[in-house]
Amino acid sequence: MTKRILILGGGTGGTLTANRLHKKYRGRIDITVVDENNDHVYQPGLLFVPFGLTQSEDLVRPRKRQLRRGVNFVESGVESVDIESRAVTLANGDVLGYDVLVIATGARLVPDETEGLTGPGWNEKVFTFYDLEGARSLEEALDDFDGGRLVVNVVDMPIKCPVAPLEFCFLADWYFHERGIRDQVELTYVTPLDGAFTKPRASELLGGMLDERGIHVITDFNTGEVDGAAGTIVGFDGREVEFDLAVVVPVHSGAEYVGRSPGLGDALDFVETDPHTLQSQAAPEVFVIGDAANLPASKAGSVSHFEGEVLVENIVRFLAGDELDSSFDGHANCFIETGFDKALLIDFNYEQEPVDGHYPTAVGLPLLKESRLNHLGKLMFQWFYWHSLLPGRDIPGIGAAMPTAGKHLD
């Protein structure tokens, strides 16, 4: 009987997994991808929409067209997963069985978790750029903004692309300089972290860069309420931050169906996952990739890319009854756009924080250093995403494990 691999989620992780598995098995196995819609959004591009640096329609392509011929695509939401009977009930009422289930439904925004966030002022003076609608609305708001207090607020962690709010601050600094009104704008970054970023060395560097650009940083701020009418963000400790325009990164959680599926996820609807094999802790035949997992790794597209190599190998091993590969090390890298046609690059894993040097070898891109080369690398990543990452192609010299060549390790 033909084995069935069911993949929930047609985003980055689900698409590259399906394509890698199809290439591996060449039609000898049934692969089905389920997603609630057919719009695949290039999420790193959302950052550029508010500043008029890209058009939102250029970021969206049909999910089905990103899948190799022979991979089935079902457009439906997911109602629940029954891990005991190995069956998934879809929102349309259909029930799909599986031999291997891959959870790849990512993280979702839950702005309603924050008091007042979606109340008066939402998409008028309070925005997010973490979805298409919000990014488009924010573009119009920034175009009309002639000065005042602009606050960028991360409500809580974890979030998709943890560097994106910092990038927004840097691009806002550039944007207002370009418009000749930077001296009329007070920029503030409000974060629940004790610094600009999670990794100490990178946090120190990025915090210094924010300070150099006159961007005020408020740390250890746990947002309790956003009052759009009054123009204030209120912390649980009583601190208030006033704004004329607020850019908020809402609370994130896993997919709703995870919470409706007994034993599948944690309190935030993320799936508890082995950090090295990517096998779920819910059931041996369930694997997880990308933002849906509760791993101590960044929720970023690069992580899904690096996970994909190990994940597919482990699905093959599982179906063959072999021991799993436990080599995934939490490898992540991120281009951080810093404005004025420059960016820096960080590369790290579970154990190793970002250091300087070069990536992926001693003659590669500079690490922890602003450069135009890194800026070009970030822009080129969009082509790489559609033509290499999603199709599941192996990139010579760039594997799942974090490289040490070229790094100035302590």
Notes on the structure:
The protein has 410 residues and is an alpha/beta fold. The protein folds into 2 domains: 4-107 and 254-320, FAD/NAD(P)-binding domain (3-Layer(bba) Sandwich), CATH 3.50.50.60; 111-252, FAD/NAD(P)-binding domain, CATH 3.50.50. Helices cover 24% and strands 24% of the residues. The strands form 8 sheets. A 5-stranded parallel sheet has the order 5-2-1-9-20, covered by helices on one side. Strand 21 (332-339) and strand 22 (342-348) form a beta hairpin. Helix 1 (12-25) runs parallel beside helix 6. The longest helix has 20 residues, at 301-320. The radius of gyration is 21 Å and the shape is globular.
The gist of it:
This protein is of the alpha/beta class and 410 residues long. The chain has helices at 12-25, 132-144, 164-178, 200-212, 256-259, 301-320, 372-389; strands spanning 4-8, 30-35, 39-41, 60-62, 72-75, 78-82, 87-90, 95-97, 100-103, 108-109, 126-127, 148-154, 185-190, 216-218, 223-227, 232-235, 240-242, 245-249, 252-253, 286-288, 332-339, 342-348, 357-359, 365-367. The longest helix has 20 residues, at 301-320.
Topology:
Layout: E1 4-8, H1 12-25, E2 30-35, E3 39-41, E4 60-62, E5 72-75, E6 78-82, E7 87-90, E8 95-97, E9 100-103, E10 108-109, E11 126-127, H2 132-144, E12 148-154, H3 164-178, E13 185-190, H4 200-212, E14 216-218, E15 223-227, E16 232-235, E17 240-242, E18 245-249, E19 252-253, H5 256-259, E20 286-288, H6 301-320, E21 332-339, E22 342-348, E23 357-359, E24 365-367, H7 372-389
Parallel strand pairs: 1-2, 1-9, 2-5, 9-20, 11-18, 12-13, 12-18, 13-14
Antiparallel strand pairs: 3-4, 6-7, 7-8, 10-19, 15-16, 16-17, 21-22, 23-24
Helix pairs in contact: 1-6
